[in-house]
Write a structure and sequence with these properties.
Blueprint: H1 5-9, H2 17-31, H3 42-56, H4 59-75, H5 88-96, E1 117-123, H6 125-130, E2 132-143, E3 158-160, E4 169-176, E5 179-186, E6 195-197, E7 209-220, E8 229-232, E9 248-254, E10 261-263, E11 266-274, H7 275-280, E12 282-288, E13 291-297, E14 306-309, E15 325-332, H8 339-351, H9 354-357, H10 365-372
Parallel strand pairs: 1-9, 11-15
Antiparallel strand pairs: 2-7, 3-6, 4-5, 8-9, 10-11, 12-13, 14-15
Helix pairs in contact: 2-3
The structure holds zinc ion (2 copies).
Length: about 375
């Protein structure tokens, strides 16, 4: 039983060509075995997606499928031409430029925008707070510098394609049980360009486009959160036939810092204060993004009390409030007492009365903790 291509791509039966393309592009990017090393079924799923795309990206095939299902397709002579994977770059080449192994009848339709590229970058929490630049390296389909994209060896002529008379497409008529089916395919000689180089460019083998390793310094704005992405317009794959380049997306990972818990723009830290010191008052060393800082603990500080270091959290990414650093006081009750310590505590305990033990304010421990993790 073959899968329903609409289901495979996760689109509705009314999906536009654009939606179908978008859905396939997204799946291709997620599932390509070069990229997806976690899902053991990625390869199968990728193949299924490519086959579904072959059917739905072609108006003729799609309508045959809509009316007669897979059976209609096979009796009209269609079978998948998807063979397997080259490298990730080959797939990009195939899908966004160069040849068209899907034979999707794209033909010569004017300018086409290049595809988007995604790369990952990792920054520390400290750098995320200050803003930084990261170095990214990625492969994109770019114009061949040698032939300036026309596919011809420099100084050699470019002819109108003899196979398709410059139209870029080939039409074949197949007789089937369902009547005549006209299929339009991209010309296999000029790959839809309508022109051929008499002597192909050595560098790109006449394709005019090639994979280029690209390096870029990317500004990461102060206040960026984990998993946010930065879009760099025009740094993706080169467009075709004069179309604009796609975009580069830098997916930013902010490395967790075990000293801080991040809640929006606020940073939460916990400091341990021994019970006697909390009663007497003391100063403790608190890690902040700017380094260690001495923070005063008032006499009589209670467990779970919060000290706010104003404006010491993460800066606001756009407009809005900069975060605070919230210090949660964890009062530590001494254990493993020696005989002497025990005597002292017993002595102290005997002297305590109600005035020593009433809470300084009405807010209970629960309310404080809730406030810290609001
Ligand atoms: Zn070239
Ligand atoms: Zn041609």
């Amino acid at each position: 039983m073959k899968a329903d291509p609409y289901e495979v791509l996760g689109v509705s039966r009314e999906a536009s060509d654009q939606d179908i393309k978008k859905a396939f592009r997204k799946l291709a990017r997620e599932l390509h075995p070069d990229v997806n090393t976690e899902d053991p079924h990625a390869e199968e799923k990728f193949k299924a997606a490519a086959e579904a795309y072959e059917i739905l990206s072609d108006a003729e095939r799609r309508s045959v499928y809509d009316r007669y299902g897979h059976e209609g397709l096979s009796s009209s002579g269609f079978h998948s031409t998807f063979q397997g994977f080259g490298s990730f770059t080959d797939i990009f080449d195939a899908f966004f430029g160069g040849g068209d192994p899907f034979g999707s009848g794209r033909g010569r339709q004017g300018a086409m925008q290049g595809g988007d590229v995604a790369v990952q970058a990792e920054v520390s929490l400290h750098d995320a707070a200050r803003g930084t630049t990261v170095h990214v390296e990625y492969e994109r389909v770019g114009m061949c510098e040698t032939c300036k994209g026309n596919g011809a060896k420099p100084g050699t002529p470019i002819d109108t394609c003899g196979r398709c008379d410059g139209t870029g497409e080939l039409r074949t008529v197949a007789r089937t049980a369902f009547g005549q089916i006209v299929r339009t395919q991209v010309c296999d000689v000029c790959m839809g360009e309508g022109k051929t180089a008499r002597e192909p460019c050595d560098e790109c083998h006449g394709r005019g486009r090639r994979a280029v390793r690209t390096q870029l310094e990317v500004n990461v704005p102060a206040g960026i959160a984990d998993d946010q992405r930065i879009r760099l317009t025009g740094h993706g794959h080169a467009g075709e036939r004069g179309g604009p380049a796609g975009d580069l997306y830098v997916m930013v990972r902010v490395r967790p810092d075990e000293r801080f818990l991040r809640e929006g723009n606020d940073l939460i830290t916990v400091v341990d204060v021994p019970a006697p010191a909390a009663a007497l008052g003391t100063t403790v060393t608190v890690p902040t993004l700017e380094g260690d800082e001495e923070v005063e603990i008032e006499p009589g500080t209670q467990p779970g009390e919060l000290i706010t270091l104003k404006g010491r959290g993460m800066p606001a990414l756009r407009r809005g409030r900069a975060g605070d650093q919230i210090v949660v006081v964890n009062v530590v009750i001494p254990r493993n007492l020696s005989g002497e310590q025990r005597d002292l505590l017993e002595k102290l305990s005997g002297t305590l009365d109600a005035s020593n033990l009433e809470a300084a304010n009405a807010e209970g421990l629960f309310a404080k903790v809730k406030r810290a993790f609001r």
